[in-house]
Write a structure and sequence with these properties.
Elements (H helix, E strand, L loop, with lengths): L2 H13 L2 H8 L3 H15 L4 E3 L2 E3 L1 H28 L6 E5 L6 H6 L5 E5 L5 H6 L5 E8 L14 E8 L1 E5 L11 E2 L7 E4 L7 H8 L7 E5 L5 H9 L5 E4 H6 L10 E7 L3 E8 L5 H11 L5 E3 L4
Helix pairs in contact: 1-2, 1-3, 1-4, 2-3
Length: 305
């Protein structure tokens, strides 16, 4: 299967237009039509309807394969380019919002680093394709367990830190005076849905072992600003599970946001941060990686055995 044809197919489906796909890819509309016809001939089945432009059943199934295939190809190209390129002194570090804490900021050198804040879902692909040299992702896990990361390409993963979790509540919440709280006690509470910055609600639901269904969300926040998320939680728009350090920052009695941080007692979960890299690290990227992890051991490879 020709990857150029596959990329054209994905673009046509995304834009729902042969002409717009041609404009984006720099082809004529006739060339795009010929490429789609060639791909359909190779697979011996129609992949698109023409009016309107939409994937057929076979085309929809091909889309499921196309994303990972094209990402793997981009990752392979970036990996070879890294090997062939001369070392450079500037490092691009991608980090999810809750992965950036005092330890990370202290590890950054005074010059030579570009910090990009991305959602945790975007970071593995950004590292694999060479858009970033290193990536810091965070999530919820059992103590000492690795995070579940998408298999986008062979990546090296090293633990960069674990911290206790806490629920950020408004001051008037019935559980605000507790010293600890169990997640199962809050299954019926309203939660903030903040996929760009907050910890994934589906992971929280699985951890609570609450059976079928989902946690109830009261408000969705599509930004990546931690302060805004905490302000919404403290104001009563929904609960947020956060690293304890972050929750206490926005708690009352000296905090900045007026909420209440109650540590999570059960289930046994931690906020885990991991450093992602692709290929051998040397120079400035290797030095920064060692500072972020505090060691060189404990790394594991996510490539297929």
């Amino acid at each position: 299967m020709d990857p150029h044809l596959l990329r054209t197919f994905v673009t046509v489906v995304r834009l729902r237009s042969f002409s717009e796909a041609a404009h984006e890819l720099g082809y004529t509309q006739s060339a795009v039509s010929q490429q789609i016809a060639a791909l359909e001939g190779d697979l011996r089945t129609p992949l698109l309807t023409r009016r309107p432009v939409a994937p057929t059943r076979a085309g929809t199934r091909l889309l499921d394969h196309a994303g990972p295939l094209l990402l793997r190809l981009d990752a392979a190209r970036a990996d070879i380019a890294r090997l062939a390129a001369a070392p450079h002194g500037r490092v691009t570090l991608a980090a999810s919002p809750l992965a950036i804490g005092p330890d990370v900021l202290a590890a950054l050198p005074p010059t030579g680093v570009t910090l990009r804040v991305l959602s945790r879902e975007e970071i593995p692909a950004a590292v694999a394709t060479g858009a970033c040299d290193l990536g810091l992702v965070d999530g919820v896990a059992a103590p000492s367990d690795p995070l579940r990361l998408p298999d986008v390409a062979p990546l090296t993963v090293a633990g960069a830190g674990e911290a206790r979790l806490a629920v950020l509540l408004p001051a008037g919440h019935p559980f605000a005076r507790r010293t600890e709280v169990r997640l199962e006690d809050l299954v019926d509470a309203r939660w903030l849905d903040a996929p760009g910055v907050g910890l994934p609600l589906d992971a929280l639901w699985s951890a609570a072992r609450a059976g079928s269904g989902r946690l109830t969300t009261s408000l969705r926040y599509d930004g990546t600003d931690v302060r805004t998320l905490c302000t919404l939680a403290a104001a009563g728009h929904g609960l947020a599970l956060l690293p304890e350090r972050v929750a206490r920052e926005y708690a009352g009695a000296g905090g900045t946001g007026g909420g209440v941080a109650v540590p999570l007692a059960a289930p046994r979960l931690v906020h885990r941060t991991e450093l992602l890299s692709s290929g051998a690290l040397d120079g400035a990227a290797g030095a920064l990686a060692r500072r972020l992890t505090g060691r060189q051991d404990g790394a594991h490879d996510t490539s297929d055995a």
